[in-house]
């Protein structure tokens, strides 16, 4: 059974500006494992990855029902690409299944997270 759906659209340039303006922005958003994956990219692809993780975590927080804040932080959620590049939620406070999807244009990233209970 679906427990929550979260959708987010983020401007890639906005995330790029935040990362440039705030020296700890990337470390604030990405877990150490996500940072490892991020470090494998360069140029526009690294910005897309960062914006994608920001947006995926926002989508997760919306599906979870709390938003990002006092009860749920960016490091409480970890989303790693599998060998095919699909985002997989590897860490979260949610005990059921979490399904994630991400898509980019040249300027935007759109994400969706669906939280599903283990009992169908």
Explain what this protein looks like in three dimensions:
The chain has 120 residues and is of the alpha+beta class. It has a single domain (2-116), classed as Alpha-Beta Complex (Ribosomal Protein L22, Chain A). Strand 2 and strand 3 (87-91) form a beta hairpin. The model has no long low-confidence stretch (mean pLDDT 95). The chain has helices at residues 12-21, 25-29, 32-38, 43-64, and strands at 2-11, 78-81, 87-91, 97-104, 108-116. 37% of the residues lie in helices and 30% in strands. The strands form two sheets. It has a three-stranded antiparallel sheet with strand order 1-5-4. It has a two-stranded antiparallel ribbon with strand order 2-3. It is built from four helices and five strands. Helix 1 (12-21) crosses helix 4 (43-64). The longest helix is centred in the middle third of the chain and has 22 residues, at 43-64.
Sequence-ordered SSE layout with sheet pairings:
Elements: E1 2-11, H1 12-21, H2 25-29, H3 32-38, H4 43-64, E2 78-81, E3 87-91, E4 97-104, E5 108-116
Antiparallel strand pairs: 1-5, 2-3, 4-5
Family: Belongs to the P-Pant transferase superfamily. AcpS family.
Main location: cytoplasm
Pfam families: ACPS (PF01648)
Quick structural summary:
The protein is α+β, with helices and mostly antiparallel strands and 120 residues long.
Low-confidence stretches: none
Helix-and-strand structural type: alpha+beta
Q: How many distinct domains?
A: 1
Ends distance: 5 Å
SS elements, strand count:
5
User: What kind of assembly state do the chains in view correspond to?
Assistant: single chain
Number of helices: 4
Beta-strand content bin: 25-35%
Radius of gyration, rounded?
Answer: 14 Å
Strand order of the largest sheet: 1-5-4
Provide the CATH superfamily: 4'-phosphopantetheinyl transferase domain
Query: Major beta sheet, specifics?
Result: 3 strands, antiparallel
What is the second-level CATH architecture?
Alpha-Beta Complex
At the first level of CATH, what is the class? Alpha Beta
**H/E order of the elements?**
EHHHHEEEE
Inertia-based shape: globular
CATH topology: Ribosomal Protein L22, Chain A
| Overall mean pLDDT | 95
């Amino acid at each position: 059974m679906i427990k929550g759906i979260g959708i987010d659209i983020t401007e890639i340039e906005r995330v790029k500006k935040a990362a440039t303006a705030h020296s700890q922005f990337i470390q604030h958003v990405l877990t150490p494992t996500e940072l490892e994956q991020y470090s494998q990219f360069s140029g526009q692809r690294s910005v897309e990855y960062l914006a994608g993780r920001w947006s995926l975590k926002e989508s997760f927080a919306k599906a979870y029902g709390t938003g990002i804040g006092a009860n749920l932080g960016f490091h409480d959620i970890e989303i790693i690409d599998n060998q095919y590049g699909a985002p997989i939620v590897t860490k979260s406070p949610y005990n059921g299944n979490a399904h994630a999807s991400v898509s980019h244009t040249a300027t935007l990233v759109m994400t969706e997270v669906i939280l599903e209970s283990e009992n169908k």
